[in-house]
Amino acid sequence: MKLTFSPASPFARKVRIAAIELGLIDKIEFVPTSVAPAQANDDYSKITPVKKLPVLITDNGDVILDSYVIVEYLDELAGGGKLIPSSGPDRWKVKSDHSLLQAMLDAMLLCRYENMVRPKELKWQAWADDHWSRAWKGMARFNEKTDVLSRPLDIVQIALTCVLGYADFRYADCGWRKAYPNLDAFHERMLSRPSVKISLPPKA
Known about the structure:
Mean pLDDT: 95
Radius of gyration: 17 Å
Strand order of the largest sheet: 2-1-3-4
Structural class: alpha+beta
Strand content: 5-15%
Number of helices: 10
Order of helices and strands: EHEHEEHHHHHHHH
Helix content: 55-70%
């Protein structure tokens, strides 16, 4: 299998962590791929018109889009039910929590684009502030989900780790550790896992 990725992508990091935890990392070839607003990548657009990372290309050439769907595919390859519950109410709770975390990452990424990439004369600060608020309030919600923070490893914990890691990477002075001590303790525990430590993004 081949996975398109960037070391800076929290979405690709999620898949890398999952692949390590599922024992499938040696079956995946990582293909460095660059995507950025207003920059063409015609070759990658042929694989996925939306130019998002990551994409998994299976051994038979099928293209699987979206980090969650890729993790779900890998989880099934590993026997199913290891990172995502196979059925029942817990499955829908996990999927819902993950959707919130995915939206938080999207909001943080859009906020970064607005502040760092958009031309100064076109910036809309209120729009960026609104997106950051979505991520920040999402952290507040997970800070109170002590059951999520303490249970055995699953896709929600992996995604939350990627949210917090991206906050460190792109918003190092945002103060999430002081504001959310439960998340801080959770993140420190997660850093003891080799999959989390070796997948840390490069220093900004």
